[in-house]
Design a protein that fits this description.
By secondary structure, the chain is of the alpha+beta class. It has helices at residues 2-20, 37-61, 64-86, 143-152, and strands spanning 31-33, 88-91, 95-99, 106-109, 113-118, 124-128, 134-136, 156-159. The protein contains 4 helices and 8 strands. Pfam families: DUF6560.
């Protein structure tokens, strides 16, 4: 009976994750960097498949260990999909706003940006005076436009 409770809690967690991962609405001429939506769709697909496998194992084979394993996989995939869909880098007129899924939102004015380093992996590191750097993955959608925007603001681009 307790395994059914765990199943329904996992299902509720996944559904809440899907509902709260709606796209961040932009106002005006703002630009954003985000991961491709295909990543979160694939992870939500993994969540659904894990839940189906947990149901099949729970009712046909009645094996608790494998059912718990599938439920843990479902929780991890739903949490990862939610985190990927929440992560954003928004470019406003005078600042960069980074929205982390588990941390506080961070705003950095363009005047504090020293330079941008291109990493060997294809990503970029924004070096900021007196603060922690912002690391951007190469898979972020819109990263090339972001670099052009920084060049227009007279910010140097260096290679590692």
């Amino acid at each position: 009976m307790k395994i059914i409770w765990l199943f329904f809690m996992t299902m509720a967690f996944g559904i809440i994750s899907m509902i709260t991962s709606k796209k961040y609405n932009l106002k005006g001429e703002l630009k954003e960097l985000r991961f491709p939506t295909a990543f979160s769709k694939i992870l939500y697909g993994c969540f659904i498949i894990s839940m189906i496998c947990a149901i099949v194992i729970m009712f046909l084979y009645q094996d608790i260990a494998i059912t718990v394993l599938f439920l843990i996989m479902a929780i991890i995939s739903a949490l990862t999909a939610w985190a990927i869909s929440k992560y954003r880098i928004i470019i406003e007129e005078s600042k960069i706003v980074v929205i982390y899924p588990f941390k506080k939102k961070r705003s950095v004015p363009f005047s504090n940006v020293e330079y941008v380093e291109k990493k060997e992996s294809g990503g970029y590191r924004v070096v900021i005076t007196g603060e922690k750097n912002i690391t951007m993955d190469a898979m972020l959608v819109g990263i090339d436009d972001f670099i052009e925007h920084l060049k227009n603001k007279s910010i140097q681009l260096k290679n590692m």
